[in-house]
Amino acid sequence: MSGVNVKERWAELRSRAIETREATLSRVPLLGRLVTDFSRVGWGACFPAALITGGVMIAYSNMSTLVMPRFAAKSAEQFGILGLVLTLATWLVGFAFVVVMSALLGRTLAEDEATRALAARVRSWLSARRGSRKP
Prior knowledge:
By secondary structure, the protein is mainly alpha-helical. The protein has helices at 3-25, 29-38, 43-79, 81-111, 113-133. α3 runs antiparallel to α4 (81-111). It contains five helices and no strands.
C-alpha cells in the first residue's frame, strides 16, 4: 500500500466517522448540538470561560463547606427531610448560576477586542522577556 492510498483511506475513514458521530448525536438534540459545536470552537475561545469557571467553582465549593452544613441543620430541624431536599436544591441552583455566569463572562472576555489586545500585549511582552534571557 502506498503512502497516498493510506492518506486517502485515512481521510475517507475520518469523514465517515464524523458523519456517523453527527448523525448519532443529532438524535439527542441538545447534546448533539453541544458536542458538534464544541469541536469547531478553538481553545482560545474556551480557555477564559474554563479558567473563570474553575476558579469560581473552587471558591463556591469552599464557601459551601462553611455555609451549607449550618443551613442544612437548620432546614432539617425546621422542615425535616424536606429541609434537606430544599438545601440540596438551593446548592444546585447556586451551582447552575455559577456555571452559567462563568461561561457568559468567559465568552464575553474571549470576544472582547480590548481583552484580545491586552492578551496580545502580554504575549509579546512575555516573548520579549524570554528572548532577552537567552545568551
